[in-house]
Each structure stands twice: as C-alpha cells, then as structure tokens.
Model the fold of this input.
Amino acid sequence: MDISDHDVKGIVFDFDGTLVESTIDYAAMRDSILRVISDYGVPQSLVSRNKSSADNIIVALNYLSKLLSHDELIEFEHDIDRESIKIELSEVEKTRPVKGACEAIDMLRDRGIRTGILTRGSREYVEKGLNIAGFKFDKRSIVCRNDHRLNEAKPNPLSMIRAANAIKTPIDKCAYVGDHIMDLRCAKGAGVIFIGVLSGYNDLERWKGSMVDALLNSVAELPAALKRP
Done:
C-alpha cells in the first residue's frame, strides 16, 4: 500500500526502537517479570521465556483473576510495574534519538499533523527518556503501560483508541508507527494504518510476510512518505 494515498491527520509512535535507540535490557526485564509471576503461584507451564513479557503477563492475569481479589490483582500489577521500572530506568540516561527522528516530528507538526506516543514503557521512563533524547511531546498525548490496567496496555487495541483520542484525531485518520510485531497487532486490532520501521527490533526478514501497510528504514523517512496537504 502506498501510504501517500491516505489522508493521515494524526500519527502515533511507539517509543523504544522507533523514536529512540532502546537502552532497556529486555531479557532481564522478562526474567524479573517471570519471577514475580512465579511468586504469585502461576504454574511455570503457563508462561515461557520464549514468550513476550506482555503475553506472559496476560496469561498470568487470566490465571490469577480466578484466584485473587480485586485488590490482590492490583497489587500484582503494581509489583510487575515496580520491577519493570527498575530495569527501564537503570540505563535511561543513555537514551538517544533515532537519527533524524526529532527533525521528522517537527516537519510533520509543521504540516499540521498531530503526534502522540503509545508505548509499553512506563510513564516514568518515557517522560525521562523523551527529555534526555530532546523530544517535545505534550504529556497528554502519551499513553503508557501504567496509565491504565495492565491488560489494557498495548497490544490491546483499546490502547490505540486511547492514543487516537489523546491527539484528538479520528481513529480512521490515524497511523501507528512501530518496530515490533506487537505494534502491528495493536494497530490492526484498532483498524489503524500501520507503518513498520527497521530502526529497532524487527529487521527486514522479521517483517517479511506481515500485514504492514508501509515499511521504512526509520521515522526520518516518514515526512516524505506521507501525502502532502
């Protein structure tokens, strides 16, 4: 699909690997999350180091929802979040923008396109990382993992709907830009155009055969790829 044919009014961006070069040790985060899940008595047979942390958390929540009270489930989510934030913030001072991303955002805004962020990062981490990397985003245009319940975070399509609402743009006029198959799942679940980038987790081989509407080397190429007003 040629995205220049679409009248995009708002663009929502993933954070790590899309706007910034990620500093997160995802293997350490996964192991830390699995320890919390184990401490709450979730059978090891239900989770796996080969699954994403997001998928392991959803499996754990589904299991624990039958056993724990509402308050206990909230405590579980807080424990997951606390351990995740520790790892997110451990190297955040090294956060750097993807080359050309800051300039691309400015160009899009100059053309009247609204911009926001949808991420599985915590608000504490993302706001600090944005500041270090030199990006300027209205805090109200950012939807983070811990803004709502964990089962409502990306890749739940509800998070994409919230992101569109946050930038005051109809969902059918939005596009989502990301570097991971989870971003694609979220966008397609909400009926949003998805633009994959090669600046993060997924290389060309990983994107092959997926339902991306467009594939760019990085966000830096986005202004040229979009329809001009």
Q: What stands out?
A: The chain has nine helices and eight strands. The CA atoms of residues 54 and 88 lie 15 Å apart. The first strand starts at residue 10 and ends at 13. The chain has a mean pLDDT of 94.
